[in-house]
Task: structure prediction
Amino acid sequence: MAEGVREAWITGIGIVSCLGEGADAHWQKLNEGKIVVDTTSFAPFIVHPLAAINFDAQITKKEQRQMENWQRIGTYAAGLALDSAGVKGQKDILSRIDMIVAAGGGERDVNVDSTILTGTPHAANPAAFLNERLMSDLRPTLFLAQLSNLLAGNISISHGVTGSSRTFMGEESAGVDAVRIAYSRIAAGQSDIALVGGAHNGERPDLLMLYEFAGLSLRDKFAPVWERGGKGFALGSLGAFLVVEAREHAEARGAKPLAKLSAVVSDRANRKPGTVTASLSGLWDKVKDKVKGGTAVLSGATGADPATAEERAFFAEHADLAVRATGSYLGHGLEPQFAMNLALATVALAHGNLFPPNDSSGLEKPMTGTLDQVLVTGVGHWRGEGLALVEKVG
Amino acid sequence: MAAGKDKMGRPLVVVTGLGVVTSLGAGKTDNWAKLTAGESGIRTITRFPTDGLRTRIAGTIDFLESQPCAASYSERFANLAAEEAVAQSGIAAPGGFPGPLFLAVAPIEMEWPQRFELSARAGGNDKITYSDLLRVSTQFPAYHERFLFGSVADHLADKFGTRGTPISLSTACASGATAIQLGVEAIRRGETDAALCIGTDGSINPEAVVRFSLLSALSTQNDQPHKAARPFSKNRDGFVMAEGAGALVLESYDAAKARGAKILGVLEGCGEMTDAFHRTRSSPDGKPIIGCMNVALKDAGLTPDDIDYVNAHGTSTPENDKMEYLGCANVFGERIKTLPMSSNKSMIGHTLSAAGAVEAVFSILTLQNQRMPPTINYDTPDPAIVLDVVPNKARDAKLKHVISNSFGFGGQNVSLIMGLEPAA
Result:
């Protein structure tokens, strides 16, 4: 059996963010250009908070109690994607779905952490104090809300996805490679149908701290991605999943494509000056033969230089492409950002046009004419470059 | 069957380099000698005070320099194992590995020593909160990179010169096997002729021990560390956390042959099946475990009767060993009573994210040496588990195909089937 190249369709999307849930809410808000940020809860830091979501619609109360918010966001988005693809509850198909989740780690119990940090300087035996507090104060099941692979585990439990389950870790590039591997396996005949994506809870002080170590957590005043002078990103709470499917598998079950996934490529520059631009150019070379016009870019630019400045330099070489940085609206969600932008690409393709620019720096320009293809970029704030091409079918 | 292709016509995937580090020592030679002598690497934890902990033993790696956090331990162990594997393979000059990296790694996180450091820098408020830590975070710029999930793989990719983006992954206690599976798939797709697959775990620290302890997963046999891991015994009472790393250089058979490499074994098949029953427990009917092994057998083009030895997941928890036995009994039928099935974990403990890779290395060594490592501490058999666990003493056997199981929290099940080089 030769493993030839098979066409991969996106047949389902599930998205939640500060803009709401689902394709229509996102499309409407992106066109309105409305910015949703929370500047007070973590002041001086700015985050994009999750919209009010009725988790009950996808997750039983009993299961919700076993989860922390990042898992609820992801399990909810995965359920929307399965609904969108028309495979929810289809046991035969769910048992063959290959799932790849891109994830970091789960929430900490900030009260326990605070108690330990506060009490340790006064403890007679600090090490014993730490052990005692951890043993008595941590909820036994908190660990299961923290383990990276337990978003996938929760999706299996809540939605019955049981073909396979893999979790990739490693910030933005984990999100790119999750889609790349799912796509490659389908193209090569190793998999027929995949559920791929991730979730991020940006309303977490421990995560703000991780990026603030590098001074990258956006503070004081909100600005769109390209207008921040490279100073960093506002974390966003968001979840995004795609159902990606071999064309023949979709056709056999009568499923319609939302879009065709035509390429997913990634690389790792060493981040010496100029290498991100060069890396993106190298990825462009791998997909450029498929770029036919009517093409726009949904950029995952974070707002953190030098990565964002170098991505901008790459776009300067392709001034004919209309670019939108979705991070200006959604915030930065690290692992799920790439899947989110692929999902938004399918939404834009369905409407045949692009939402308006939100950038006074001059990079984002209005797009005229119809939209037939979307390039999605995923440049990690620290490592990893990714590029995908999504196209209208028919 | 064409040379260089498997029964399905896909590129045959072979192993040309192996590296391992566990609590028994560094390197294949030392590990294999101790493993087949039935030595235990489990000891009393001395790395940090264990006052107030229910479990005070682990398979720590104490013969290497200490590190500030699990990320750094994991990186150190992975480096050591990969150096050995890449050197043995002779595939490339140092720093020029001609393929991608797949790394199974424990989740990366900031730990208590760093939190205390920030807290001290923030100054003596009455109550310390994350706002205080955030106020001084920019004074610790190195912690950004260190505590990014991708940092361990990134550093390894730099050192070994692997191609493309390295993939860091977790399937909990099946992670090491998943790393190998991703490598096998990439070679079968024809994307690459080689892959570096590593599983590593260095997460023995207070909070990690507490987490497993609170789930009642750990043995509390603190007074006899060597005796604590007793897979398949009636008096087993939990697993013993351990550190380690295993590394494998995978290559297509054709590429290995073309460069005259010595083939150490064949990665014949991989299987996985997710269990949606519960976060930490297996479905009582064992169907996902059974399905996982059957998928691996099918992928390898083999039948249960072709398997000569099972490298068990064998954690020594009451639940796992019972369910693994039930699953194997279903797959292998009556043969299960005589099919040798031993647990490396009886000696090295449970190396968590590394286990699948460490035990794959030992599975290949088992094939190469035609000798099965024992299950030690097998003094009180569980009457509900009628198995040849290769009790207490290593044994020679004629082995062509072995299966290695890895099961993890979150319903993760992966089985790998390995064999010897086919006759030319």
